[in-house]
Amino acid sequence: MGLGIRGCRCCVVGGGMWPEVLDDELLLVRLAAEARVLAEAVARCAPSAPVPGLGWDAQTVVAHTGAVHRWAADIVARSLATNETGGSAAFAPSVREVSRLHDWLDEGVAILISTLRSAPAGLRCFTFVPSVPPRTFWIRRQAHETAIHRGDVEAAAGGPVTPVTASFAQDGLGEVVGAFATEPAFATDRPGRLLLRPRTARRGWSPSAANATSSRQATSEVRTPTPWFAVPATSSTAGRGTARHPS
């Protein structure tokens, strides 16, 4: 899952907080739309088709995605305070369900969307980014989870991969940089700096990290004088890391 920077200071170049961060209702619409495209891709893709660059076949991706949907819905529906089921593996399809994987996926999506839509604004439950309200966290995470994996299945089917809107893409970057990158659980021990400059937005992100042993507190600041497109390329240096969520 993207970037994790310990001791992160995240500067939003060009002012504001996160460019084009979508609200819960727009993200629910996006989740439903991505699920429809995923279902269409599953219908035309051979289960054994390899997903380029992933090392999984299409059936594995679909089973994983459907299990994540059920895992998230269970946490929200029961307002679980901890990840007591241990992650999405507990919701993997049975042999019988694998034989009807398309229907199983659709059923899980319907449960997920209904559960998220009816969840109260003040929902309290387990998440893995405590800085984000739980209802918003799970809606956003499942919208982007579904989008990423429908792209996997579309690619496995031979393409084309349906592009996402600029605002949804920017929202996803905001999730990684503004949420995941500030959480120690998703951190890398390698200090560095990364400049993200979307071509379709007038703002961008510039997260950086001090050494993990000297800086543990995640903070954010806004820098307004320089628009994202005017920041010199030399301000972008290495700082790669791999963050994994517990699904």
Can you describe this structure?
The chain is an alpha+beta fold and 247 residues long. The chain is built from six helices and four strands. The protein has helices at 24-44, 58-77, 95-98, 101-118, 134-156, 166-178, and strands at residues 8-13, 192-193, 204-209, 219-223. Strands 2-3-1-4 form a four-stranded mixed sheet, with helices on one face.
Counting copies of identical and different chains, the oligomeric state is single chain
Largest sheet: 4 strands, mixed
The ordered H/E elements are EHHHHHHEEE
Taken as a percent bin, the fraction of beta residues is 5-15%
Specify the helix fraction band. Answer: 40-55%
Record field, number of beta strands: 4
Number of helices: 6
Mean pLDDT across residues = 77
| Strand order in the largest sheet | 2-3-1-4
* Straight-line distance between termini: 11 Å
Structural class: alpha+beta
Radius of gyration: 19 Å
Apparent shape: globular
* Low-pLDDT sequence parts: 1-19, 209-244
List the helices and strands and how they pair.
Blueprint: E1 8-13, H1 24-44, H2 58-77, H3 95-98, H4 101-118, H5 134-156, H6 166-178, E2 192-193, E3 204-209, E4 219-223
Parallel strand pairs: 1-4
Antiparallel strand pairs: 1-3, 2-3
Helix pairs in contact: 1-4, 1-5, 2-4, 2-5
